[in-house]
Amino acid sequence: MTEQSSLYARHRRVMPRWLATYYGDEPLELVSGSGRHVSGGNGRTYLDFFGGLLATMVGHDIPEITEAIQRQAGRLLHSSTLYLIRSQIELAERIAARAPVDNPRVFFVNSGSEAVETAMLLTTTARRSNQVIALRGSYHGRTFATVGATGIRGWSATSLSPLQVTYAHNGYRYRSPFAELGDEAYNAVCAQELRTMIETGTSGDVACYIAEPVQGAGGFANPPQGFFLAMKEVLDEYSIPFVSDEVQSGWGRTGRSYFGIEHYGVRPQAITFAKGLANGLSIGGVVAEESLMNCLTANSISTAGGNPIASAAGCAVIDFIESHDLQRNAAKIGDLLQRGLRELAQRHSTIGEVRGAGLMIGVELVEPHSKTPAPDLANRVLLECRQRGLLIGKGGLYGNVLRVTPPMTVTADEARQALDTLDAAMSALTLTAAR
Q1: Is position 192 within any domain?
Q2: What residue stretch is flagged as signal peptide (predicted)?
């Protein structure tokens, strides 16, 4: 038994059976990283195009971020929100100054799931309602309320929920019954569907509408321009708050705005964030309009949310993104990757669609010359890419979408290397299938 297989055996003895790992019975241990590369416990080095499930947003072992963490660690690790935390206040100021939210207030937690839970607490309290409109294909977390608002069967562990959820259209055109419509007509039909749902499927006093501007686990479904603005116009008719879930799409990763929802011309009442803000350290939070944030009448604190270490890292990440113009880089390299992937689609009939924004790119795999999802192929491509030195992710409603999400510091040469590797991996699998 190798050291890696021994480690996996230990993992299986003490971890839950439902705790998924990639690569079947050969999961990978990552032990170190630098830039966009990581080293495994097997001694191999890989080009990392999944970035810790989008959390390692600016790369591994970034000196400016490491130094900020070390400086704070040498002073104080923890205090709780019962005391003033300078780095937390500084981070909140940075976020409030950049968020497309009127008169913003910021509250920090420890994860994306907890951030969405907080948004649900705020909106259900303010509206005195537990009715929520979420989107088909959405993923909002693994906790009780967030699972209840998740629109992917594979991530819905229970039908029990404190929320009553209505699922609206998500703008996923590839499998939409409205796919043949032009953008304006498509948005209008989806808006009318939303209005009908509100008037016939709810009591009218809906707590909120929650949406990911670019769906993450849903396979990077990317609605047409104007989609969310059309939804917001309907929501405003009923005074329903718009919550933008930016756990994956925030901080400029989309390459077209600091928060994904800005691209659609919408100013939401609340934004949830997490993941990449601290480049992998545990952090999350909500930035919301003052009246919404202050609607709670009971006491509330956060023991570790916005702790000194994570907040110091968050400040350093935002400064690094802006000083290195990484949003522009996300747009440039994202365009290079999407063009390259669409060229691959011309050679590989198993690529049904390439979509996304910036460095959030989905490659939907299907059975040849059809739209039938090919989840087994996605698993084989993941493993073949790993064997060739490239790490990518997967998702989608059927587990058939490759997720290409390198850190925002990725270079053009690394993007071309990833494209060549993916091309070789798919070609090898095609040859194997033909034998």
Answers
A1: yes
A2: none
Question: Is 1 part of a structural domain of the chain?
Answer: no
Q: Which pLDDT belongs to residue 204?
A: 86
Residues 233 and 248 placed together within one structural domain of the fold? yes
For residue 370, which of 394, 350, 345 has the smallest C-alpha distance?
Answer: 350
User: Which element (helix H / strand E) includes 166?
Assistant: strand 164-168
Contact 421, 46 (CB under 8 A): no
> Which structural domain range is residue 386 located in?
7-61+325-434
Residues 173, 40 share a domain: no
Token pair listed for 381: 């491509």
List the one residue out of 235, 260, 306 whose CA is nearest residue 100: 260
Q: Which two tokens stand for residue 283?
A: 């952090």
* pLDDT digits 0-9 by tens, 136-177: 999 999 999 999 999 998 888 888 899 999 999 999 999 999
Asked if residue 2 is part of any domain, the answer here is: no
| Statement to judge: residues 166 and 298 lie in one domain | yes
Distant-in-sequence, close-in-space partners of 239: CB < 8 Å, separation ≥ 6: none
- Please give the mean pLDDT across all residues of the chain: 95
Residue 165 shares a structural domain with residue 210: yes
Classify residue 77 as exposed, middle or buried by CB count within 10 Å of its CB (0-12, 13-18, 19+). Answer: exposed
CATH of the domain at 402: 3.90.1150.10
Q: Are residues 145 and 31 in the same domain?
A: no
Asked whether residue 435 carries a pLDDT value surpassing 60, the answer given is no
User: Could you tell me how many residues make up the chain?
Assistant: 435
Instruction: Look at the pTM and tell me if it is higher than 0.90.
Output: yes
User: Which letter, b or e, does each residue of 160-197 get, where b requires 16 or more Cβ atoms within 10 Å of its Cβ?
Assistant: ebebebbbbbbbbbebbeeeebeeeebbebbbeebbeb
Contact call for residues 139 and 220 (beta carbons, < 8 A): no
Residue ending a domain, choose from 294, 324, 354 = 324
* Residue 89 and residue 176 share a domain: yes
Task: Give the model confidence (pLDDT) of 283-318 as tens digits.
Answer: 999 999 999 999 999 988 999 999 999 999 999 999
3 state SS of 285: strand
